[in-house]
Specification:
The complex is a heterodimer of chains A (469) and B (336). In chain A, the strands form 5 sheets. A 7-stranded mixed β-sheet of chain A has the order 11-10-12-13-15-14-20, sandwiched between helices. A 5-stranded mixed β-sheet of chain A has the order 17-19-18-21-22, sandwiched between helices. A 4-stranded antiparallel β-sheet of chain A has the order 1-8-6-3, with no helix packed on it. In chain A, strand 14, helix 8 and strand 15 form a beta-alpha-beta unit. By secondary structure, chain A is an alpha/beta fold. By secondary structure, chain B is of the alpha/beta class. Chain B has a single domain, classed as Rossmann fold. In chain B, 58% of the residues are buried. In chain B, the strands form 2 sheets. A 5-stranded parallel β-sheet of chain B has the order 1-2-3-7-6, sandwiched between helices. Chain B has a two-stranded antiparallel sheet with strand order 4-5. Chain B is built from 11 helices and 7 strands. The interface between A and B is large, with 79 and 79 residues.
Chain lengths: 469, 336
């Protein structure tokens, strides 16, 4: 004989008032019938029957206040059942919830929650889900050819499209126009309009469409003309692409690449000039890379395309035209999650990514003249982050400068400061210094733009400051 | 309710609709109804937390639509999704155990009411952001066309979602590229507490694809046979390669938007009128009895079996253990 329990009508309700009994004792009850009205602090709501039968007994009379959630308030007898054998006593007001049909462990907490202590034990160090260290990067001994970053990206896409028919390129002007920044030159001609898809200007739409195609097992490369426009698609990137694997208990996969130029361009003012590295690096479920060299652009993009997860590839308009030696081997890959020592040094560690690596290397030349030997770490991957390489370097140099184009507050440099504090505080001989974009929307005027953007001399000054020289 | 019927009210003796089929639809709708009532009760007992959006009243839409689909067609919807999952053939135990946040749930307790999936049943969620499932569903259609697999994407959205910009971005791309997507607008008259008339400049939502050349049709979503017929016709056109189509299902949810909604924005009379005069389940039951397709005893037995399944699901959902604490850190990323 089922009891009708005082229901919780919101996630926070603990007690309420029986405002009115709509049914009387002896009434026939069908599933879905309104039995009573309950008053909470917010509203009056109806309680419906779930079982069929006769309302055999009203245990809590109408007008009773402070009836705790889960208290039996009535008894419904299946047809033919005798109510007398089922004796339910009305509870005292403010009584503790009476667990009637709940498993015993539910006594104290009706809402299942994992005890915090147990959860903490499973938590990796510093709250970061640190993946197993990526395999060491094999030395590439094959042939390299000099090419621009834009050509290296194009080759990476073309090679992966030749290798796997489920890979396609999607975005504004990627086909007929040959790429707004000429990255996709020749791809339409080789692969046709089925696989090189010109989209309308509709970022949220085509980002979501790409995610749906990835859920269905395709491997779309979605080009944002620049990452500034990806803000229109942010909900899809975070809520749909990054979180669905977790929310599905591992059942769903989203093998997709979002790529395009990021960071500070040239004289295009605030809306078209911004670094999104720390935005994306903040989000579990995404991988984020921001390469500098041609080899890294090619190797990381290829890894991103083969990766079963959503990967954000942050490129840079001012780097597209730079020429580097790039491996020719179509199986050349750069593992995601591994930083690169771009220059070894003794006195100070300078971290940088994307175009800022170039400035850091120039700064190192300057510093060399002053007798300061700088170790430059090209982070390349921002999530997962190569904590070990940074920490090892800082333990050697005891000083660290972080460089990024983005704003300083809650930036990548802030995260590096936290990592250094947590992992190698005792090795530090000076507080970390951040070189970052100034904390203003990027101005248009040439002189102001230069002031707002990290310059080689800023890096030199920061390195001198932490080495006290 | 004012409904422009494409087909006249369907009769039991409709060619192709056997008594077995109708009884199956009755059973499928009843399963959703009883499941949702039980979910509401378990929410009241504190066994289900957070947001819980019940589908009670709208059952004919998913049951009729599912019957119109073919094996391999994909389905996606937003957060009022329990009915879609049961109609797709997902196990009530796994759905209920997800509602209670237990290990035996479809997402192992990590998704909850709004976030469940079944690759096996081609159900792609279960999405929590109003309208966000529409471009994703369009992407499922894109993948069908890319592969040329002859399947279609059925993308559900509500009368609330219909005013989201990304819906129109999707309509445009789907029509531009002739994607096999059938958009099913479940117009249950209220986006949370705001009626369609208070939210939409034009309330006949099936016209919303007109600017993109997408034909729309309004259907009595409280009549499972009418839904099936409209769904069958639209699915055939979409499958043929004519591009996307829109069906607007005029339906009604009896319960609040979510569990904590006192539903002050509509009168009790309105709700009662829908329940007594337009209930899809009562309606079909009467039809089965009147036509002699089923007798009272047979239906009582069917109803008992449905109730048993729901009781089993509820029991499983309470007995299944909570996820292991180590599960906190799994499924964030796939191993590369």
């Amino acid at each position: 004989m089922p009891d009708v329990l005082m229901p919780a009508l919101s996630p926070t309700m603990t007690e309420g008032k029986i405002a009115r009994w709509v049914k009387s004792e002896g009434d026939e009850v069908r599933a879905g019938d309104v039995l009573a009205e309950i008053e909470t602090d917010k509203a009056t709501m109806e309680v419906e029957a779930v079982d069929e039968g006769v309302l055999a007994k009203i245990v809590v009379p109408e007008g009773t206040e402070h009836v705790a959630v889960n208290t039996p308030i009535a008894v419904i007898a299946a047809n033919g059942e005798d109510v007398a054998v089922h004796d339910v006593k009305p509870p005292a007001p403010k009584a503790k919830p009476v667990p009637s049909r709940q498993p015993p462990e539910q006594d104290e907490e009706p809402v299942p929650t994992a005890p915090a202590a147990r959860a903490e034990r499973a938590e990796p160090k510093a709250g970061r889900a640190v993946p197993s260290a990526p395999a060491p990067e094999p030395e590439y001994a094959g042939k390299t050819v000099p090419m621009t970053v834009r050509e290296a990206l194009r080759d990476a896409i073309a090679e992966e499209m030749r290798r796997d028919d489920s890979v396609l390129l999607l975005g504004e002007e990627v086909g007929e126009y040959q790429g707004a920044y000429k990255v996709s030159q020749g791809l339409l001609q080789e692969f046709g309009a089925r696989r090189v898809v010109d989209t309308p200007i509709t970022e949220q739409g085509f980002a979501g469409l790409g995610i749906g195609a990835a859920f269905a097992g395709l491997r779309p490369i979605v080009e944002f003309m620049t990452f500034n426009f990806a803000m229109q698609a942010m909900d899809q990137l975070i809520n749909s692409a990054a979180k669905t694997r977790y929310m599905s208990g591992g059942q769903m996969s989203c093998p997709i690449v979002f790529r395009g130029p990021n960071g500070i361009a040239s004289r295009v003012a605030a809306q078209h000039s911004q670094c999104y590295a720390s935005w994306y690096a903040h989000v579990p479920g995404l991988k984020v890379v921001a390469p500098y060299t041609g080899a890294d652009h090619k190797g990381l993009l290829k890894s991103a395309i083969r990766d079963p997860n959503p990967v954000i590839v942050l490129e840079h308009e001012l780097v597209y035209g730079e020429t580097f030696p790039v491996p020719e081997d179509p199986e050349f890959l750069v593992p995601i999650g591994k930083a690169r020592i771009a220059r070894t040094g003794e006195h100070v560690t300078i971290t940088a990514f994307s175009r800022m690596v170039k400035l850091a290397l120039q700064a190192a030349e300057e510093l060399e003249k002053a007798g300061i030997s700088a170790e430059i770490i090209d982070l390349r991957s921002l999530r997962p982050f190569d904590v070990a390489t940074v920490v090892e370097s800082v333990k050697k140099t005891n000083r660290v400068v972080s460089v990024e184009e983005g704003w300083p507050f809650a930036g990548i440099g802030s995260e590096i400061a936290a990592i250094v504090m947590e992992e190698c505080f005792d090795w530090l001989d000076a507080p970390l210094k951040r070189v970052a974009g100034k904390d203003v929307p990027l101005p248009y005027a040439a002189n102001l733009e230069r002031l707002a953007t990290p310059q080689v001399e800023d890096i030199v000054a920061a390195a001198r400051a932490v080495t006290y020289r | 309710m004012a409904v422009k019927r494409k087909a006249k009210p369907a009769e039991v003796e409709e060619p192709g609709l056997s008594p077995q089929t109708l009884k199956q639809w009755y059973r499928d709708m009843l399963l959703i109804r009883r499941f949702e009532e039980r979910a509401g009760q378990m929410y009241g007992m504190g066994l289900i937390g957070g947001f819980c959006h019940l589908y009670i009243g709208q059952e004919a839409v998913v049951v009729g639509m599912q019957a119109a689909l073919e094996e391999g067609d994909t389905v996606i919807t937003s957060y009022r999704d329990h009915g879609h999952m049961l109609a797709a053939g997902m196990d009530p135990k796994g759905v209920m155990a997800e509602l209670t946040g237990r290990r035996g749930g479809y997402s192992h307790g990590k998704g909850g009411s709004m976030h469940m999936f079944s690759r096996e049943k081609n159900f792609f969620g279960g999405h929590g952001i109003v309208g966000a499932q529409v471009p994703i569903g369009t992407g499922l259609g894109f993948a069908h066309r890319y592969r040329g697999d002859g399947r279609i994407s059925v993308t559900y959205l509500g009368d609330g979602a219909i005013n989201q910009g990304q819906v129109y971005e999707s309509f445009n791309m789907a029509s531009l590229w002739k994607l096999p997507v059938l958009y099913v607008i479940e117009n249950n008259r209220y986006g949370m507490g705001t009626s369609v008339a208070r939210a939409s400049a034009r309330t006949d939502l099936y016209h919303r694809g007109t600017a993109y050349g997408i034909a729309g049709e309004q259907v009595d979503g409280m009549d499972v046979v009418a839904v099936y017929e409209a769904g069958k016709g639209a699915a055939e056109r979409v499958r043929r390669g004519d591009g996307p189509a829109i069906l607007e299902m005029l339906t009604y949810r009896y319960r609040g938007h979510s569990m904590s909604d006192p539903a002050k924005y509509r009168t009790k009379e309105e709700v009662n009128r829908m329940r007594t005069e337009h209930d899809p389940i009562d309606h079909l039951r009467q039809r089965l009895i009147d036509s002699g397709a089923a007798d009272e005893g047979e239906l009582k037995e069917l109803e008992r079996r449905v109730r048993e399944r729901v009781v089993e699901a509820a029991q499983f959902a309470q007995e299944s253990p909570e996820p292991d604490p180590s599960e906190l850190w799994t499924d964030v990323l796939a191993e590369a």
